[in-house]
Amino acid sequence: MQNSAEVLFVKVGKVTTSKLENQKRKELISAIKKYPVEKAYLTKTGFLEDEQADLKHHGGENKALFLFASSTYEKINKQCNTNYKIDEVSHFGENIVLSNISEEEICIGDVYKIGESIIQITQPRQPCWKLSANTNKKEMTKFVFNSGLTGWYAKVLKEGVITKHDKFEFKQRVEEDLTISVLNKLIVNPSIDIDLAKKAVESKYLGKAFQNSLNKRLQAKEKDKQFEVYHS
Fold first, then answer.
1. Domain for residue 182, yes or no?
2. First vs last Cα of the chain: how many Å apart?
3. Whole domain around residue 15: which residue ranges?
4. Do residues 200 and 211 lie in contact, with contact meaning Cβ atoms separated by under 8 Å?
5. 43, β-bridge pairs
6. For the whole model, what pTM was predicted?
7. Is residue 126 part of a domain?
8. CA 20 to 30 Å from 99, out of 4, 25, 69, 207?
């Protein structure tokens, strides 16, 4: 288990409207484009300087902070033959880019100290069509979903300033079987481990949005069509 990582970048963004060419939707109204800052104040609902356009699916206390690993960027670049940079606008809507850690090492319910704040991990990111629109790569949303290179959300237990180069310090683990990586595999195909999928659905630490999606997946199995709308 990785006990400590470093904040490489802190990013915040405002809601903007971008015209889309040759896509099903005509425009992208989103704050997915976030830009590096030296520091930002983290509240219970996210950075003070940050915004979300779609409050039904983004933001809120259980999705106050979206974290991404530099290693995830590297894996996406390698597998997609892309060259996304971590030091520029956020290609995946991330608020924080971390060194030295990955989806395999983070569990829901984990508590971390990050700068002045304390956070608790809630769920993987559930990719929607905006990822493809923002990266201008048609299959990006489906790739992120199927690969599990999602990043993860956290809620805020203690508010405070987060600064570039702050430590990301592990404090507590409560669900050692439910890593972000495992949850991403289960949401694609719960039948790989039905017992673990049921454990996830019943966990009080799993974010409601992901919990509901996984439960539908578990009940409907291959008949589940919930992601068709969000992925295209």
1. no
2. 36
3. 4-175
4. yes
5. 46
6. 0.92
7. yes
8. 207
Cα torsion angle, 80, 83, 78, 179, sign = negative
Pull the structure tokens for residue 144. 């992120």
Residue 55 token pair: 């409050």
Q: Say which residue the tokens 């974290």 belong to.
A: 67
Contacts of 161 (CB under 8 A, 6+ apart): 39, 40, 41, 42, 115, 116, 117
Residue type, 140: M
Write down the pLDDT at residue 52: 66
Question: Cα-flanking dihedrals φ and ψ of residue 9, to 5°?
Answer: -145, 140
Give the residue with greater pLDDT, 228 vs 185: 185
Could you tell me if 52 and 59 are in contact, meaning their C-beta atoms sit under 8 angstroms apart? Answer: yes
CA distance 18 to 214: 32
SS3 231: helix
Number of structural domains in the chain? 1
* Domain CATH for 109: 2.40.33.20
Does residue 28 belong to any structural domain of this protein? yes
- What 8-state DSSP symbol labels residue 61? G
In angstroms, the CA 79 to CA 26 distance is 28
**Strands 65-69 and 96-98, how do they pair?**
parallel
Which range has the worst mean pLDDT, 43-57, 137-151, 183-197, 210-224? 43-57
What pLDDT was estimated at residue 19?
A: 77
Alpha-helical segments (H) within 108-231: 129-135, 140-147, 180-188, 194-202, 208-220, 227-231
CA distance 204 to 116: 25
Distance CA 75, CA 87 (A): 16
Distance (Å, whole) CA 147 – CA 125: 12
| Structural element, H or E, at residue 212 | helix 208-220
- pLDDT-based confidence at residue 60 (cuts at 50, 70, 90): confident
